[in-house]
Amino acid sequence: MKVLRRVFKAFQYRDFRLMWIGACTSSIGTWMQIVAEGWLVYRLSHSAFLLALDQFLGGIPIFLFSLIGGVVADRMERRKILLGSQYLQMASAAVLTILVATGYVRVWHILCLSFVSGFAQAFGGPAYQALIPTLVEREDMPNAIALNSIQFNVAVMVGPALAGQALGRLGEKWCFGLNAISFLAPIISLSIIRTRFLPVKTKESVFASLKQGIQFARQQSSMGALIVLAFCMTALSMPMRTYLPVFVKDIFHRGPETFGNLLALMGLGSICGSLGVASAGNIRRKGLIALGALFCLGAGISGFALSKALPMSEAFLVLVGASMMAVFATVNSLVQLITTNEMRGRVMSVYNFAFRGGMPMGNLLSGWLVPLFTAPLVLSVNGFLLIALALYFLLVQRRLAAL
């Protein structure tokens, strides 16, 4: 019982519980859409490049606008920013549902709506990341961040599994429609939480505030290494999730249910990794743990890319999910603990700029390389590069390992 209380300590805070439930429900819907959207793009075009382009257009607005989103998060009530982001994403999912249901959907429609959703996330992401730590006491912040990772990964496990069933039996429109409805959960949660962020009024320009946030991040010891690590790990690891439809259809010769099951197994591993971080609490040497998990992540991705047997690939996906979330949650905790609350929106937007910016860049590069060299070869090289990155920070640039 004591172990459970330690693992789920942040749940004793009412507002955190409400936000967790709302975010988890919405994330399940989002993952249903991600699965259906990837499958729909590949079904309509059978193009690995367009599959990557869809991911790129969903991520590039975060890369372009999240720094401005961080400034806004420090100047406005974060709850209101999040509400606006949820409404815009709900509208985007509803439009896609109508297009698919009426048979008018084209790949360019999907690409445009991915950009709109990414734009909403560019402002909602920094506000959400800045809001979560304010819902708990400082000593419980690492636990809250890990539990927040768990809600994301519960969604990664449940959402794809539901999407695989819905795709096979009902069609893509149900996945998109259920995602639109799921945004009601965070909207309700945001409407009833008591926590409020009251920003200090300032006459500084947006760019002056942004410059201040960047300078704060540069002045913090090891922040630069954390930001570089965030960019590289997402750029090299996220293409594996993007190209799962290629493996399912062209290597394993299976259908959408297998696609959903593979993503669900990856989500199961992610939950295990997040639970491990949550149970550890505010431990020392987080940097060493993050680099060890990064090494395992690279090994898992290379193993999956080179495997030709479905059961072995499933095992590698569990390892990938566990190590990926261990890295993400630990690095996020380090950044949050370094940052003060009044600078949190801007600093987290700098981190988000690197973390989320790696996704479209990695997908764009892999979208160019995969048609030339095949998905297994490109992804296996990505895994080996992650291993090399972990060894570099462990053996050469040891500042991060000492955190």
Provide a concise account of the structure shown.
This protein has 403 residues and is mostly helical. 83% of the residues lie in helices and 0% in strands.
- Strand percentage lies at under 5%
Give the C-level CATH assignment. Answer: Mainly Alpha
Largest sheet: none
Provide the succession of SSEs.
HHHHHHHHHHHHHHHH
From the alpha carbons, calculate the radius of gyration and give it in angstroms: 20 Å
How many strand elements?
Answer: 0
The CATH architecture name reads: Up-down Bundle
Strand-pairing-aware structural class: mainly alpha
The percent of residues in helical segments reads over 70%
Tell me what the structure shows.
By secondary structure, the protein is mainly α. The chain has 16 helices and no strands. Helix 10 crosses helix 15 and helix 13 packs antiparallel against helix 16. The two termini are 31 Å apart.
Please supply descriptive tags for the structure shown above.
403 residues; mainly alpha; Growth Hormone, Chain: A; 83% helix; globular
Q: How is the secondary structure organized here?
A:
Layout: H1 2-7, H2 14-45, H3 48-75, H4 78-102, H5 107-131, H6 141-169, H7 172-182, H8 184-192, H9 206-219, H10 223-242, H11 244-251, H12 256-280, H13 286-306, H14 310-338, H15 344-373, H16 375-395
Helix pairs in contact: 2-3, 2-6, 2-7, 2-8, 3-5, 3-9, 3-15, 4-5, 4-7, 4-8, 5-15, 6-12, 6-14, 10-14, 10-15, 10-16, 12-14, 13-14, 13-16, 15-16
